[in-house]
Amino acid sequence: MSALRDALRDLSEDVFFDLLESDDAYLLVVDVPGVTADSIDVTVEEGTLSIDGRREKDREIPGEYQYIEENRSLFFDVSLPVPDDAVAGNAQSRVERGVLELTLPKRTGGETTIEVTDDSVSNADSASASERDADTASGIDADEPTADDADAEPR
């Protein structure tokens, strides 16, 4: 996430934003005055989040007036890195009253347990099974005490 944070810090001072984080997602809130859902495009490609917006004129200018200077940009074009732990394909966005809210869910950090087998135990089990099979074939009952068992010390 530090790459995203650094990229946001490098934006022009004219861009107002908040970046929030929870256990489940990132929430990027960006002021985009005059922009509507129809005049903004939010895309993610190859780990880069692109926000392209066009401000629509607020109102008609009376006929006798003309713009001499406009202090608000007509375009909003930002490219930001997507955090490594974010799932960009599940991102959601909405714009309301000139404020864009973009939610980037995080990957579930569920722990995966990998079973570890011990080949030496498997081989010993196989050898014991083979001995039982041989005893059964020769008519020896493994559950009956043998002469060797009588000499053995109790455990």
UniProtKB/TrEMBL annotation:
One of its GO terms (biological process) is response to heat. The keyword Cytoplasm does not apply. It comes from the Archaea. Residues 6-124 form the SHSP domain. PROSITE patterns: SHSP. Keywords: Stress response. InterPro entries: A-crystallin/Hsp20_dom, HSP20-like_chaperone, HSP21-like. Residues 119-129 have a biased composition (Low complexity). It comes from Halobiforma nitratireducens JCM 10879. Belongs to the small heat shock protein (HSP20) family. Coiled coil: none annotated. Residues 141-155 have a biased composition (Acidic residues). Residues 106-155 are annotated as: Disordered. This is Heat shock protein Hsp20. SUPFAM superfamilies: HSP20-like chaperones.
